[in-house]
Specification:
Blueprint: H1 2-25, H2 32-39, H3 43-49, H4 53-62, H5 76-93, H6 95-104, H7 115-134, H8 144-166, H9 171-182, H10 189-194, H11 201-212, H12 214-217
Helix pairs in contact: 1-2, 1-4, 1-6, 4-6, 5-6, 5-7, 5-9, 5-11, 7-8, 8-9
């Protein structure tokens, strides 16, 4: 068990180091040597976990995939809101998640399957929207696939703008504003009135998730900025 825990920590340290290097230099300019130096591990340790720089980058990309075990809600639209707000919170605090999003938007990372991150988010949101439709929470004309892809793209743009303007300090507020504008066009009025869209929602839900699933939440725990 101790060896397994050490391997998990080593893998995480490599990914965190790679996240910083990719964030500073971009995927194309980053080198394995820089990642090794930043992580403080041997080449053998890195290649035990990853076969190439590309595989390291894919590991970083996976860090920003949707958290699939958030607390269940009776309202599926509230569950949809929670996914967006938790992602906003993680983007503010976890360098690994930040780097995953940056890689997904990095035009220089052509050999990476950057589409996988967008596809994962769209698929997750489509599933939640399908559940919401089954519970009568959506307006009758809503296409769940189009709506999921719209929300994924809109979130990507909002977080990029927040990053450029204030290093994502206002991201919770911006995502709240986005949802307040989009949800009235898809939600039934009664359900809309019951939703919690507050900017602080992400932190509260993440703490609830971490307390209820400590083992699962370990890999997604935000790193507090110094």
């Amino acid at each position: 068990m101790a060896r397994q825990d050490r391997a998990i920590r080593t893998r995480r340290s490599i990914l965190e180091a790679a996240a910083r290097v990719f964030g500073e230099r971009g995927y194309a300019s980053a080198t394995v040597e820089e990642i090794l130096n930043r992580a403080g591990v041997t080449r053998g340790a890195l290649y035990f976990h990853f076969s190439s720089k590309e595989e390291v980058a894919l590991g970083v990309l996976e860090a920003q995939m949707p958290t699939d075990r958030l607390p269940e809600r009776s309202s599926k639209l509230q569950k949809l809101v929670d996914h967006g707000m938790v992602m906003a919170y993680r983007l503010q605090h976890d360098p690994l998640v930040q780097a995953g999003v940056s890689l997904a938007l990095d035009q220089g990372a052509r050999e990476l399957d950057r589409n996988s991150a967008f596809r994962a988010w769209s698929d997750q949101l489509e599933q939640i929207l399908t559940e919401a439709r089954g519970q009568g929470e959506l307006l009758p004309h809503i296409d769940v696939t189009d709506t999921a892809e719209l929300l994924t793209g809109a979130f990507s743009g909002v977080q990029a703008m927040s990053q450029a303007r204030c290093n994502r300090a206002d991201l919770g507020h911006r995502v709240s504003v986005l949802l307040r504008h989009v949800l009235p066009s898809i939600s039934t009025p009664a359900m809309l009135a019951a939703l919690d869209l507050s900017p602080e929602r992400g932190e509260r839900v993440f703490e609830e998730y971490r307390e209820s699933s400590p083992a699962t939440a370990t890999a997604a725990t935000p790193v507090t900025r110094s």
